[in-house]
What does this fold into?
Amino acid sequence: MQPLHVSTPLVESLPLAAAFGAPVYLKMEALQPSGSFKLRGLGHACRLSVAGGATQLVASSGGNAGCAVAYAGRRLGVPVTVFVPASTSEWMREVIRHEGAAVVEYGAAWDDTHLYAARYAAEHGAAYIHPFDDPRIWDGHASIIEECAAMPKPGAVVVAVGGGGLLCGALDGMHRVGWADVPVLAVETEGTASFAKSVAAGRLVTLDAITSIATTLGARTVTARTLEWAKRHTITPWVVTDRAAVDACLRFANDHRLLVEPACGAALAAVYERAAPLAACGSVLVIVCGGAGVNRELLDKWDREV
It folds into this structure.
């Protein structure tokens, strides 16, 4: 089946290399048609669902997953309903509507939205597309690394973590291309660090609330698959402040003329700030996960608020 996503550029970043002190490579997932890496895995899941007979799709999302499902539904010719939590910006809602999907608000945080959306899908005979906890999604996200296989093996891969779908997919891809020995830095912001807390506790930890502006990292509990990976691959959780994430977005906009969300800025911040676990790694590959929910006005607003 023809994928819905595009093959994105892999570029060497001289500005980040100057800040980091070693070669930095960027996988530019912000250039996907839906604005983020989400289109790879969710587009794959949507295509398989429709091929299996689904006539409508339902998603729950703080933004990028919903946008990816909306895009996929439009391309596949099936209606889409996206349920969003109250924290979702009006800009992001309009982006989703622009793709032709219906947008319905439910719940204060994504976890509540997810439960309602899954129930709605079951009651209406629709295919529910989970934003991160589905092997089909991980399989789709693995293509990010597969497209990087021809580059020199990096010393580390830097990944932002929300629910863990990107992390799981990247690890699947790394093991497929012979990068099983390459460590991963899994980056979250303060207030979304459910993965870091889960690794520290040795079990899944559910946050009481999401208290970061990086709302697209806002899953209070990561998929259990991330902890399974932590037992068989070298993964170091790393937590940055909202201020660092926004500063990285601003700096990246100047360095590469591209706007990304704070969720993506978190991963970039780890490189700009020379995160300690990367010190001995040499070159790094950063997945620039992107984000459709950003514009100049929102970036300025986040800069004022943090």
In short: The domain at 38-131 is CATH 3.40.50.1100 (Rossmann fold). DSSP finds 13 helices and ten strands in the chain. The mean pLDDT is 95. The longest helix spans residues 242-256.
